[in-house]
Amino acid sequence: MLPQALRMAGRSALPLLRCADRWADVIACAASRQVKTLEQMPGPSSGGFIWDLLFRRGLSRLHQLQLEGRRRYGAVWKASFGPILTVHVAEPELIEQVLRQEGTHPMRSDLSSWKDYRRLRGEGYGLLTAEGEEWQSVRSLLGKHMLRPKAVEAYDGPLNAVVTDLIHKLKLRSQQSSSGLVTDISAEFYRFGLEGISSVLFESRIGCLDPVVPVETERFIQSINTMFVMTLLTMAMPRWLHRLLPKPWDTFCRCWDYMFQFAKGHIDQRLEEERQKMARGERLEGRYLTYFLSQAGVPLKSVYSNVTELLLAGVDTISGTLSWSLYELSRHPEVQTALRDEVRHVMKDRSVPEARDVAAMPLMKAVIKEILRLYPVIPANARVITDRDITVGGYLIPKNTLITLCHYATSRDPRQFCDPDEFVPQRWLSRSEGSHPYASVPFGVGKRSCVGRRIAELELYLALSRILMHFNVEPAEDSGPVRPMTRTLLVPERQINLRFIER
Ligand code: HEM
């Protein structure tokens, strides 16, 4: 700027101009000395990282590797995940820096194997995988029906009906054991999650909580589980290796085939019902997401892919968070009692909470926040900045680099949270905690953050309130601690078994 202005001032400014040019050179030189390059960034050797991944159970310990990485290399380091070079960022201030530079159409990651599958089979992209304008148009539409408080409140009826069935199922199962034992609670909550998201997507029930669970439902849930296991593996394998070792890729594709088939079956059935209604001259007034998508003129291929991805997003996330919540509450009876008191105080003599009741339940919100701090469903998120190089933590990161945001590391950082491995929901009730706002962001931040957040929170609050009104939840007698493991998402390493004692 300065040299330009001086040039415009004419010849008399020449000596000054030379001086300013020299200064500009000096500043550029100093800046380039300060900003380091990707080559200068520390990190494990490619061989070492692959060794960790394949032979030290690294894929299931990826969240732990975030802590190890930060200890060894500091806030920013690089590692090669198979064919992909990724920069890890493990400091809240730096995560904020990345997210503030993400641009108008943020890209989460290449999610290469998910996108490869869609290209191979000619399927469309849903909100999780779409990019650019395609993503923006569906995001705006779904945001209206999934994030606005008034729109979300309308789902409390269908969700409560699903919670009623869950309570019934938990009663049946706990009565089958003299001690009220329910084994593998996550399996029950997978079905609850799927039934819940289906009620929001189709405004109809699909029988996941029936005494006999339909085989297609079990197969769908199994497909999600296996697909998540295979996601990291297929991404870590270079494409040419898929031909040599075809099993992971084939299994991955079979899971997606079934998930698309399952979703298409339900969508076609629901849209056919609407067509018949219309033929009979009845008024259409659906309040479910599939209806909103199809009415807004979204092409059918895109309705299929969006509904498939929403179904998938609503299962493990809800199941994991509910399982960890009850696991921690069973081990902290004083918090459980305080939470139950809060719910009963708000409910007075009513038995079914509504969306608006939650506003008066600060401890409930704090419990879920704390659970998601300790067990963030997505332990590492990512961004790819496509339009320019950015500087993060003193390093120049070239555009199109995959940047891994190490949320597990920041949310368990003792500099951010005292006793970071302890379940202390009260920390969210006082303002004294003083953690950085980006230290625990389980739903992400900004334009590409979780579109299901409000529905997920409502579902969790409604389920937890009613479970606590009906049961005292206690640990199983022989139960030791359960740790998390990574399976793309963060899940319990082994079954969680709890005793549900009817009140
Ligand atoms: C405890 C529950 C949940 C957690 C912790 C969670 C977390 C997240 C996170 C971290 C992201 C990525 C955000 C980013 O990149 O900045 C995300 C994206 C997303 N979530 Fe959730 N989620 C939950 C439940 C749900 C549910 C129930 C649904 C469906 C109703 C859902 C649908 C989605 C979708 C479609 C996206 C992609 C959004 C986009 O790219 O525009 N999530 N979620």
Sequence stretches where pLDDT stays below 50 over 5 or more residues: 1-30
Write down the overall geometry: globular
- Find the CATH topology of one domain: Cytochrome p450
| CATH architecture assignment name of one domain | Orthogonal Bundle
CATH class descriptor name of one domain: Mainly Alpha
Tally of strands: 11
Assembly of the depicted chains: single chain
Beta-strand fraction estimate: 5-15%
Supply Rg.
Answer: 25 Å
- Give the terminus-to-terminus CA distance: 74 Å
Ligand inventory reads:
protoporphyrin IX containing FE
What is the structural class? Answer: alpha+beta
Strand order of the largest sheet: 1-2-7-4
**What average pLDDT do the residues reach?**
90
Give the helix level as a range of percent. Answer: 40-55%
What count of helical segments does DSSP give? 20
Going by CATH, the homologous superfamily of one domain would be: Cytochrome P450
- Main β-sheet: number of strands, strand sense, barrel status? 4 strands, mixed
